Amino acid sequence: MFARFPALLKLAGLGAALVIALLFAVFVGDQGPWYFAWVVGTVMIVLISATGAVLFEAQNSEEHDKNKETQP
Amino acid sequence: MDLINPHVVDLSRFQFAMTALYHFMFVPLTLGLTFLVAAIETVYVITGRRIYRDMAKFWGHLFAINFALGVATGLTMEFEFGTNWSMYSHFFGDMFGTPLAIEGLMAFFMESTFIGLMVFGWDRLSRPAHLAITFLVAVGSNLSALWILIANAGMNVPAGTHFDPDTMRMQFQSFVELVFSEDAQAKFVHTSVAGYVCAAMLIMGISAFYLLRGRHRELALRSFRIATLFGLISSVAVITLGDVLGRMDYAKQPTKIAAIEGLWHTSNPPYAPWAAFALPDDAKQENHFEIGIPFVLTPLITHSFTQPITGMHELEDQAAPRIRSGIVAINALKHYGDTHSSADLATFRAHEDDMGFGFLAMRHSPNQDTSAITEADLERVVHQTQPDILPNVFATFWAFRIMVALGGFFFIFFAFSTFFSLRNQLESNRWLLHIAVWAIPLPVMATEFGWITAEAGRQPWTVFNRLPTFLSSSSHTVGYMTFSLIGFILLYSALIVAEFYLMFRYARRGPQDHTSHDTTLSGLHNAQGGHF
Do A50 and B233 touch (CB under 8 A)? Predict the structure, then answer.
């Protein structure tokens, strides 16, 4: 029971953060749709840019593997 | 009451415009660089590859240089409201001061506190903790902009406020109404994402410079990829919010939108042409050499094919009864100050909405006193005040067009850059890299022209339809204003030179060499369990 406590606490914390995020989204989305759009849009911009870098690594890795295969 | 010296007002305006434009060279980069660094650091946390740590550190240092100089130029601006615009500060200080104070206490302190942890905490904090700090710096810098733009939105579309005739000040009716006003929201998002575009172009430009010189290739290719995606989406957001602001101006600031479009006569939908090129003549109140594109203006501004847009001549005609009513309001307000009688208060309340137009008529009244206007003189004063409701059409018209043209260019450029970056063909398209280098200053210029459009278009008011600019300044002498103006220009020019010197020096030197940890892809392989 006690060994599980930190994990349960973490779960409760994440649950609380999720509830706060949902309440925030409902309130800001209702009162200030453009503010809400900024929050969502900025997160999206950051994540898509980061995905671009991860894709770059995948392309790079693929090219690296191809070069290895073609080497005698 | 002392007569208002128009030269002091003009010098105060020029000084504020200069300080705002200088300051605004730093602000957009700060807004965007923080989130771009956060995006780079996110990749570092996800992949564990050290090159992204070095990239975040390198671009983070550029942000820090920019931030330090931005703060130095911003602080003086806030004091200028008190020194040069004391009448404005008295009239609108409750509304304007509150967001500025919140900006100082909340956002600025938050940003400044976390920036120390961001710069010096790389070896002291865990990866996720440092990433959280970087995001907090980004949120803090954008919250600073939020409060400033809420204050600015209050000047353009006063929301949640009422005028108190006892204190002669605008006072809060609803703080929430001001914070969540449509104008504040759209202004903030438009400015914030414009900052993202500036930062994306800076990183792309410097990365392109390295690629052209064959230096720091690994860092440059990755930085360019992240920045071009960041810039592409941001440029779409800038255009979208620009459209929203245009429709808001159509509804709430008709003089601004008419000046932006150089529209002297009410439009004739749906044919009404959009003036792509014209030379507006403010004195003659007409356009020279106009080249228009038919059927574009009405849907562009109104999102319909039927709604007309009121022209400047018709807006002048509509202002005439408001000027007459405003003169009655000002005279009643003056009597109320002496007598405190309920009759004077009732008269003022009946004409309160036109008070600003009465203030505007003071300039053409005998001894700038509206109570001295005789019946015989009234129509002359009204007639002379009518053109004063319009902003400088030439400046507003062209500032807007330059901003829009640059915005269109950024979208196209980011689209091409994204295409070639995703295909790993950047280095074989050197023309694109050359454009990227030369385009570094363009987004900052676009934001400056955007600022000119918004603020020149708001004229002749500091608080739209409430307080004219010529009544807002302090009662300094011309000598004092000239002296302080020269001082400001010299100081700010020195700061700009320092900024450029530090940024150029840092960018030219470049980051540490990455070849030692770039020759293998083991970092990513390890982090992703070899899936890549």
Answer: no
* Cβ neighbours, 10 Å, residue B16: 18
- Locate the chain A residue with the closest alpha carbon to B177: A31
Question: Cα distance from B44 to chain A (closest Cα, Å)?
Answer: 9
Q: Name which of A33, A42, A53 is nearest B43 (Cβ-Cβ).
A: A53
- Mutate: best of B42, B47, B207, B223, partner A, most A CBs <10 A: B42
Taking the domains of chain A in order of start, what are their residue ranges?
1-31, 32-72
Q: What is the residue-averaged pLDDT of chain B?
A: 88
Which of B146-150, B223-227, B360-364, B485-489 bottoms out in mean pLDDT, i.e. has the lowest? B485-489
Taking chain B, what is the end-to-end CA distance rounded to the nearest angstrom? 77
**Tens-digit pLDDT profile for residues B166-216:** 888 998 888 888 899 999 999 999 999 999 999 999 999 999 999 999 889
- Out of B36, B189, B234, the one facing A34 most closely (by C-beta) is B189
Q: Taking residues B224-231, what's their average pLDDT?
A: 96
Residue of A nearest to B524 (CA): A57
Average pLDDT rounded to a whole number, residues B88-112: 83
> Between residues A63 and B134, which one has the greater pLDDT?
B134
**3-state secondary structure labels for all residues of B429-490:** CHHHHHHHHHCCCHHHHHHHHHHHHHHHHHCCEEECCCEEHHHCCCCCCHHHHHHHHHHHHH
| pLDDT of B69 | 77
Highest mean pLDDT among A36-40, B291-295, B406-410, B480-484: B406-410
Residues in chain A closer than 8 A to B192 (CB atoms): 38, 42
**Domain locations in chain B?**
6-255+390-527, 267-309
Q: Calculate ∠ Cα B429-B35-B135, nearest 5°.
A: 150
What distances in angstroms separate CA B92 from CA B85, B97, B140, B156, B502, one per listed residue? 10, 8, 26, 12, 39
Q: State residue B526's pLDDT score.
A: 38
pLDDT value, residue B513: 53
Encoded tokens for A18: 């999720």
C-alpha pair distances (Å), B106 with each of B102, B113, B140: 6, 11, 8
**Min CA distance, A59 vs chain B (Å)?**
9
Q: Hey, are the CB atoms on B185 and A60 less than 8 Å from each other?
A: no
Flag if B42 and A35 touch (Cβ within 8 Å).
Answer: no
Q: Is the pLDDT of residue B275 over 50?
A: yes
* pLDDT on residue B223: 95
CA distances from B435 to A10, B201, B406, B507 (A): 50, 10, 13, 17
CA distance, residue A7 to nearest chain B CA (Å): 19
Count Cβ–Cβ pairs < 8 Å, chain A vs chain B: 96
Residues in chain A within 8 Å Cβ distance of B237 = 41, 45
CB-CB under 8 Å, A45 with B35: yes
